[in-house]
Amino acid sequence: MSVVITALIVFVIIFHVWAMVLEMFFWTKPLGRKTFGLSKADAEVSKTLAANQGLYNGFLVAGLVLSFFVPNPDTAFTLQVFFLACVSLAGLYGGITVKMAILFMQGLPAMIALALLLLT
């Protein structure tokens, strides 16, 4: 695997760890509210949903991290394709339904990594 693909996957992992932490632990705190543009009341009402969303981000991270440790290269490739496709689709959906920035911050790095992975 190329250094560029590995770097992009690591970026996706770091981004989703940070998203998980924000959504699960800081959603109602000033940092979380500022990051997501939420009022205190809106954050309180939606904190359970945000924690659930954060957990999903954690599962994406777990799958991508696991792909670096499985000894079989075909299995690693399959895991990377699957989890990058999940991140790409989530980024695309978020960009369409919530805010276009989600597409660029979450989706685009995963889409580029996925495209490069499939082309190698």
Gross morphology is elongated
Assembly level? single chain
Total strands: 0
Largest sheet: none
Number of domains: 1
Strand content: under 5%
In helices, the fraction of residues equals: over 70%
Low-confidence regions: none
Helix run count: 5
CA radius of gyration:
15 Å
Separation of the first and last Cα atoms: 8 Å
Structural commentary:
With 120 residues, this protein is mainly alpha-helical. Helices cover 88% and strands 0% of the residues. The protein has 5 helices and no strands. The protein starts with a helix and ends with a helix.
SSE order and pairing:
Blueprint: H1 3-25, H2 30-36, H3 40-69, H4 73-97, H5 100-119
Helix pairs in contact: 1-3, 1-5, 3-4, 4-5
Q: What's this entry about, in short?
A:
With 120 residues, the protein is mostly helical. The protein is built from five helices and no strands. It has one domain.
Which features characterize this protein?
120 residues, mainly alpha, 5 helices, 88% helix
